[in-house]
Amino acid sequence: MSRRPYVGRFAPTPSGYLHFGSLVAALSSYLDARAAGGRWLVRMEDLDPPREVPGAQAAILTTLEAYGFDWDGPVLRQSERLDAYRTTIVQWLASGLAYACDCSRKQLEGTGGLYPGHCRNRGLPETGAAIRIRVPELEYRFADRVQGDFRQHLGREVGDFVIQRRDGLIAYQLAVVMDDVLQGVTDVVRGADLLDSTPRQLYLQELLGHPAPRYLHVPLLIQPDGHKLGKRYRSPPLPPEQAGALLVRALRTLGQPTHAALAEEAPASVLAWGVAHWDASLIPRVSQLAEAQLPA
Q: Which residues are catalytic?
């Protein structure tokens, strides 16, 4: 059976500005899509208004443009998809696949992240409660293109997980899968911090009748204090004037061989070179890279 035409995506959260870790994620997804002759989409994961930084959405798109990225079609914003998410949740509640849960964080302390099923059969009202999805007693597995085989037993290792928070906000796991289904995403390229989320997403894809995409999880970039490069820890935003040099550094971080003069090229030229020479098999087969390990 022939593969579906490649559709990839980059889905930043506007809780801050793009940083070097964001650049590595964007670059890997972009090069993988373009090298396959595929489409590359940009999605704004703006599900959590209290955490959104004013102006961050516009700044993210401006930075992507300054770094030479071009995307296909309009930007999809999750905040415009709330009715669709809630329609699915209502359907799953009606069928008994989902249920309301009023467990507090204190009640769940000491469970090691595994939900013990306190509210599974209580028949609680939905008002003021979180909504959880029932998981099967099954192991989900997949072959990641960089990290190798990964498996997780949803019943024993995760338990019923939240698809809508107590405050009414839609959970990431549901939104990301429904968006991938809507956009026909065939290949997910993202950071290895989301490796553990993939089995839950495989289950949701199954429920929605969507074929599982291929996955490629690139190493997570770690700061000296042990935190990942990220908006929460005030990683410096990407300066437009250093676009060429930082794109080359990101290429080297992804294991791609480059030449010294490439850093002097315009961002679009660096990206074109990267597409022509992209080899995902060269990405370091580790889940984390410390800043000290990153190429200059």
A: 231
